[in-house]
Specification:
This protein has 203 residues and is an all-alpha fold. The chain has helices spanning 2-15, 21-37, 41-57, 65-77, 80-92, 101-113, 117-128, 135-145, 149-164, 177-188.
C-alpha cells in the first residue's frame, strides 16, 4: 500500500500542477497511515507531515476538509509543534463561526489541540445538536473537553465500531484514523481509552 500511495504522490509531483495538491495530500496521507500500520513510525511521520503541508497549500474558501485533514495528520504523527501551528491557522480561517458542521468540526479539533477546553466545549455543543454530523464523534470531542474519561471511552468505542462496520476507507487503507486523532487529543487532556482493533496500529 505504501508503494502505491508513493507512486500516486510522485505522479502528482511530476505534473507540477497546483490542482494536484489535494491528490498529493490524499496519497501522502494514505502512505502515512499504511506505514503506521506496518510499524514504520518514522516513515509514517514523514508522509503524514507531507499530507498536512499539501492540504494546507491547497486550501480554498470553505474547503474545511483540508484543515481537518491537516490537523488529523499532524496529531496522528505526533508533530506537536506542527499541530499547534495548524490549529492557529485553522481558527484564523473562521472555522469557529462557520455555518457548516464540517467547519465547526475543524474548529473543535483546533481548540482541543490548543488545549482551550472551555471554548472547545462551546463549539462542540453546536455539533451535538445537529443531525448531519456523527453523534459519537461530537460526543467524544465534548467529553475530551470535559475530561470525562468514562464517557469518552464509550464514545470513542462507538466511533471505532463505525469504522469496523465500513466497507470503504480513505485511499483504500483500512485504518480508524478518526479514532487515532481522538486518542491523540485525549492524551493532551491527560487520558486515553484502551482500544483493540485490527484497524489500529500497535494492537
Amino acid at each position: 500500500m505504501v508503494d502505491r500511495e508513493r507512486a500516486r504522490y510522485e505522479d502528482g509531483e511530476r505534473r507540477n500542477d497546483p490542482a494536484q495538491l489535494v491528490r498529493m495530500g490524499n496519497a501522502a496521507y494514505g502512505a502515512g497511515l499504511a506505514s503506521l500500520m506496518a510499524g514504520h513510525d518514522e516513515e509514517a511521520r514523514e508522509w503524514l507531515g507531507r499530507a498536512a503541508a499539501r492540504w494546507q497549500e491547497s486550501f480554498a474558501p470553505e474547503a474545511w476538509g483540508r484543515p481537518i485533514g491537516a490537523l488529523k495528520a499532524l496529531l496522528i504523527a505526533g508533530h506537536d509543534e506542527g499541530a499547534v501551528e495548524a490549529a492557529h491557522w485553522t481558527l484564523e480561517l473562521g472555522t469557529a463561526t462557520a455555518e457548516s458542521p464540517i467547519g465547526r468540526y475543524a474548529a473543535a479539533l483546533a481548540l482541543l489541540t490548543l488545549e482551550r477546553w472551555p471554548e472547545a466545549r462551546h463549539v462542540v455543543a453546536s455539533l451535538r445538536e445537529r443531525d448531519d454530523f456523527p453523534h459519537d464523534v461530537a460526543d467524544a470531542l465534548a467529553l475530551i473537553a470535559a475530561h470525562d474519561v468514562v464517557g469518552y471511552t464509550e464514545a470513542v468505542e462507538s466511533v471505532l465500531a463505525s469504522f469496523e462496520a465500513r466497507d470503504a476507507y480513505l485511499e483504500d487503507v483500512p485504518v480508524a484514523d478518526t479514532v487515532l486523532a481522538l486518542q491523540a487529543l485525549a492524551r493532551r487532556r491527560g487520558f486515553a481509552a484502551e482500544l483493540q482493533s485490527a484497524l489500529l496500529p500497535w494492537t
